[in-house]
Every structure is written in C-alpha cells, then in structure tokens.
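Homework help thread (please don't just give me the answer)

Our assignment gives two proteins as sequence + structure token strings and asks us to describe the second one. The first is just a warm-up. Here they are:
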Amino acid sequence: MNPGAEQEIWQTTMVLPFFDEEVPVLCMSDGTRYIPVIVLCTMLGLPAKTHIPRWRRLMLWSHVRKLPFRTRKGSRRVVWCLHLGAFPLLCACFHWDLVSAERRIQLRQAVDAWNTMLDTAHQELLMDYRFTRRLLFAFLTTISDRDVAVKRALARVRPLLDQKSRLQLDTLVQQGNMLMQQAQEHARALVQEQTQIPVIDVFNLSTDGQVSEACSLPLLPVTSPDGRAQFFEEVSQLTRWYLNVAIFLVGQGM
C-alpha cells in the first residue's frame, strides 16, 4: 500500500492555483508532492465516501498512495493522497453540476489553463522530436560515405610515412573505427526507439462535412534526454578525432 514508506515525509501547506484554497501538502524526499483526497473532496464539496470508491476503479488511482496525514486537530491518520500533478485528472472524474457555481467557474479557468500548458508542452516535445529525428537521419546518411572517404585517404597516405608515423596513424584509424561504430550503433538505436512511438493521423473536417488528411503526428513525441546527450558526446568525440587526424597530417607535412 505504501512502497515509499522509507522516504522522509514532511507536511506543509500551499494555495492551490485557480481555487484560492490553502490545502495541506505532503512532500516526499524525492521532491514529489501529494494532497489528501479527502481534503480535495471537502474543497470541492464532494462526499468522499461516495466518490473515493468510484475513483479507485479509474486510471486516476495509479497516481494515489496512502500516506500519514496530520489533521488540524493534531491527530495522525493514514489517508489516500493524490499526486499534485494528477489533480487535473481528478477534475475530469466527476460531474461539475455536483459542485457550486463558484467552483465550476474555477474549474473552467483551471482546465483552460491546463489545456494551454499541455498544448505548449506537446508542441515543444514535437519540435524536439522532429529536430532529433532529422539530426539522426542526417548523421546516418552522411557518416558512412565520410567514413569510407577518410579511410581511403589515410590508406593512400600510409605508404608515404616512416615506421613510427605509420604506427601513430594505425592507432588513430583504430580509434576512429571504434568511435564511428559506437556513434552509428547509438544513432540507429535512437531511430529504432522513435519508431516504437505510436503515430496518429490528423484530419481536417470542412464545414460541408468533407474530411481530408492533414498530417501524421507521434502521439507521445518523447525523446530520451540521456540518449541524446550520449549521442552528442559521441559526435563531439568524432569531431575531436577528425581534428587530431588533421593535426597529425599537418605534422607530417601533408
């Protein structure tokens, strides 16, 4: 029931945006914050005994856990607590006619703001996804030809070098082969990872009822930050390798 019991938990308060209501918040040591569900029910004027059993059957409950809560009277009890980031989900899990007119206005304002933030976040993810995809394909379509061209050029240079310089060149070539292989394999893995993202087709509906396909978009265009960081580091290493090769050739008078 409480897989995070070993975490340190402390209780504070916050004013809930759009609702102008101060509510208790349970803060975890990893930075996540939870609000007691019974407090949210009280704020909205919903009977907890009626709604909590219903909500427990919904996907919403995957964002809920039992945590120790200190009431205003100072007593402690373990209650269901909702992840703060999942509060918009809860607002979609009950009929708004059940709350006061003032709360309905606040709910509408909050939902409009959340939708705007969600759309902005999705557009940013989509831009990042497209940029990463173009970058990976550009790298994969050019690195093979460049790899072959560099190897041929260095093979022509090798017979012109003395024994010591040949050993240095061979070491450089081995390093280059390893770096190129690592970068290519990682780029292919990132491309393959993107192919696993579900894609949705977007259609336009005209006023006369005609449907036309607009575009196709990834449903959740999320790219791995760690994966991209590693790829950029590998490209940086390749760039430094090309520079080292250039320095070596200049040192050989070529």
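The one we have to describe:
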Amino acid sequence: MLYDITRTLTPRTAVFPGDTPVSLVRVADITRGASVNVTAITCSSHGGTHVDAPLHYSAAGASIEQVDLDVLIGPCRVLTLAEPGDVTLAALQARLGETAPVRLLLHTRSSAVPDDMWDDAFAAIAPDAAEWLGSAGVRLIGVDGPSVDPASSKLLPAHNAFLRRGVTIMENLQLTGVPDGEYELIALPLRIAGIDAAPARVVLRKP
C-alpha cells in the first residue's frame, strides 16, 4: 500500500503570507506550433510540501543539498493529534510515552485545510514539545501545517529547538486518509545548491 502525502502544486496553492506564489507558464506549446511542451516554474522554496534545511533558520546552517538523505528514508510513525490548539508536550507524552520514533509525522486538523486556502490558525508545535521530541530520539519531524512555529512567530522557538537537537523538519504534508501506524517514509527534496528548503515528493509505504 502506497500513500502519496504530497500537496499538489498549482497556481492556486496557498503560500505563507508575503511569500512567492506558484506560477506555471507554458513557454513552448505544441498547440501553438512548438515541437514540445515546456513550462517555466516559479515558486518559493517553501511552496507546498517541502523539506527545510538548517540554512532556513541559521545563517551557518547546511543548505538543502547537504541534508542527509538517510534521515529522509526509513521507518516512520504517523500519529494523529486532533486536539485544538498547538501540539503540546502533554499530548505527545500521553501518546508516545517516554520515547519517540526516529521519524514522526503529525496528523493534525491542518490536513483538512484545502491546498488553496491559507489557515492562520494551523497547529504549530510548542517549544517544550519540540525540545522533548529531539531529546526523545526524533531525527525527522513532519507536520501537515505550513510551519512548526505559529505564523506570527519571529523568534521561531520550535525551529531553533529542532536545530539544536539535529532534527530535520518537513512541512505541508497531506495526511488525510492515512491511518495511524508504522510506515516506510520516502521523502526526496529537489537537489538545488545553496538554498534553504526545497519542494519534495513524499510517500509512505506500508511494510
């Protein structure tokens, strides 16, 4: 069983307020006499489903082509947290106990938000919850919202907690219809030199 948990990029894809919208322009068109179809793509490195590089929140951080692929491929767990508000330490510990999986994908209310709608009240991760996840053994955290921090945050405490703990961040997943449980994760961001994130095709395979 294969689950594609990638959000589809279209010109209607909602982006972080102020970020570059998605543009798809046909620059060569068979119906207009060209020998091939060719499309020019413009978008933010954080458009749709994407993997953050440490460079996104640290001037000295690694860029996306330097992110270790080993952390992006392997066993993972999908966990639904349906409570309103942000993801809290208490909610995580109640469901996970004292240890956490190496790769954890959090299914919140954000998966129900259409791709073309911006939801300012998406479920972020509380800073102490981020610290605990890193200390409990998580090396990759995936969320279905556009960020692990609230949209209004300037200090990015969850991003920085994950940075300190060496946790890779993946955002804007689509987990509707994916049952909680254990999967094999395959998440491959585009290999673009020197940038802070890249869109990724992300799939789950049931072992």
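TA reply:
I won't write it for you, but here's a hint about the kind of observation we're looking for: The chain has one domain: 2-205.
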